[in-house]
Amino acid sequence: MQTEFSSTKKRECLYLVSEFIPPEIVPIVWFACISVTVYVFFRVFSSTLREKFKQTNLSRRQAEKGGNTDGQIDDLISNAPRILHEIDKQIAEQKAAGVSDDQMKGLYQKKQLLSLVADNQEVINIIGKPIIKKLLGFVKAI
To answer: Do residues 105 and 142 touch, judged by C-beta distance below 8 A?
Structure first.
């Protein structure tokens, strides 16, 4: 008797619910439930997803920077005369301002290295550049 009453009660309840929800709205209700679930999921895991995205971008940028050192070496070798000219201008300006030679020690060292590169550019391109690239590759591996 009890089971008949409860099953009858369930049928009546389902019948009442189906009366309140028209069949045209059922897909909209399903869509709303799925949308809310997806929204909550991404809201909860958004910080994790952002961190993963940052890690991926960071590793990609580091790989691009690593591959770019060859280009930087080439640019330094080809632009050495221009940079040397700029350093000479800076030294002349500093001397005109009354700066002592001890204070310009760093500029003189840069000038010496750049003049060495500018004077021996062909030799560096043939012999030095491959050696420098291999040394940089070895340093990166460490």
So the answer is: no
Domain presence at residue 103: yes
Alpha carbons 91 and 106: distance in angstroms, whole number: 10
Question: What is the per-residue pLDDT across 123-141, written as a single tens digit (0 to 9) for each?
Answer: 777 777 778 778 877 777 7
Is the domain of 96 the same as that of 121?
yes
Alpha-carbon distance values, 106 to 77, 86, 91, 113 (Å): 20, 14, 10, 11
Tell me the torsion sign for CA atoms 78, 79, 82, 83.
Answer: negative
pTM over 0.85: no
What whole-number distance in Å separates Cα of residue 106 and Cα of residue 126? 28
Q: Tokens standing for 82?
A: 């221009």
Q: Quote the longest CA-to-CA distance of the chain.
A: 112
Count of H-run helices and E-run strands, the chain: 6, 0
Task: Indicate whether 129 and 104 sit together in one domain.
Answer: yes
- Is residue 6 domain-resident? yes
Which range marks the domain in which residue 134 is found?
79-142
Q: Which two tokens stand for residue 78?
A: 């080809």
How many domains is the chain partitioned into structurally? 2
